[in-house]
Specification:
This protein is α/β, with parallel strands linked by helices and 227 residues long. The protein has helices at 53-56, 59-66, 74-82, 147-154, 172-182, 202-211, and strands at 3-6, 12-16, 19-23, 45-47, 69-73, 88-91, 96-99, 102-108, 125-131, 134-138, 159-163, 186-190, 215-217, 224-226. 22% of the residues lie in helices and 29% in strands. The longest helix is centred in the last third of the chain and has 11 residues, at 172-182. GO terms for molecular function: hydrolase activity.
Length: 227
């Protein structure tokens, strides 16, 4: 069993084996997450899929305030190291690393990646997390790709965090295909409704997922559930 808390946009805190992993922290600039106290979030790890501000905005403050290990691609990890983040681990596509909560593989994503100051964020990616009780996929911002079929061939994915907001990433139809490619029936939505460009009909998205034999899980900001 793992515990999952939603902080808005693509930001989730996942607790595995008494360790907490925070994905793509974008909270303080998000008016929809105004009730979340960033200073109270103390993860053991911060995993960042790519360099856009809406995925890294609170990473530095949370990393320094929690002594968390920041994990991302080489360019992003080094960028944060230059900002004084002392604990960091760089990765790149296709590479894996075992941490005390499980094994992380950095996988392909199709998306741009520029850091807030204009520096290169390297190539965008996603993460496959293997842990003692299962395996899940955090896609980050991406288009639908055939590379996702390789994930389904290599791993038994219990659930997947997939973007559904369309415009900048996959929409729900492609997210349903992505879930099939990686071999899961459970989709946890990310990257939707935060901005006008990515506002979607949530009930219709759930209906489309259900008609395709998938479960689309959409949480309220601040809500926690277990899988």
């Amino acid at each position: 069993m793992i515990e999952i808390t939603y902080y808005g946009h693509s930001t989730y805190l996942v607790k595995i084996n008494n360790k907490s992993i925070l994905f793509d922290p974008f909270i303080s600039p998000n008016p929809k997450a105004s009730l979340i106290k960033v200073a109270d979030i103390k993860p053991d790890y911060i995993l960042i899929s790519h360099g856009h501000e809406d995925h890294v905005a609170d990473a530095e403050s949370i990393a320094k305030g929690s002594d968390a290990m920041l994990v991302s691609n080489y360019e992003i990890a080094v960028w944060f190291a230059e900002k004084g983040v002392e604990k960091y681990h760089p990765m790149n596509h296709g590479g894996s690393k075992t941490f005390d909560f499980g094994k992380v593989k950095y996988v392909n994503a199709v998306h741009s990646s520029t850091l807030p100051d204009g520096s290169s964020g390297g190539a965008a990616g996603g993460f496959v997390i293997e842990h003692a009780n299962g395996c899940f996929y955090f896609a980050g911002d991406t288009a639908l790709t055939y590379d996702m079929k390789l994930i389904g061939e290599e791993f038994k994915i219990d659930f997947a965090f997939l973007p559904i907001g369309d415009n900048f990433t996959m929409g729900i139809k492609d997210a349903i295909k992505a879930a099939s490619f990686v071999g899961t029936k459970k989709i946890i939505g990310i990257h939707y409704d935060t901005f006008p460009y990515i506002e979607i009909d949530l009930e219709l998205a759930k209906k489309e997922a259900a008609e395709a034999g998938k479960e689309l899980i959409l949480l309220n900001i601040g809500e926690t559930f277990t899988l």
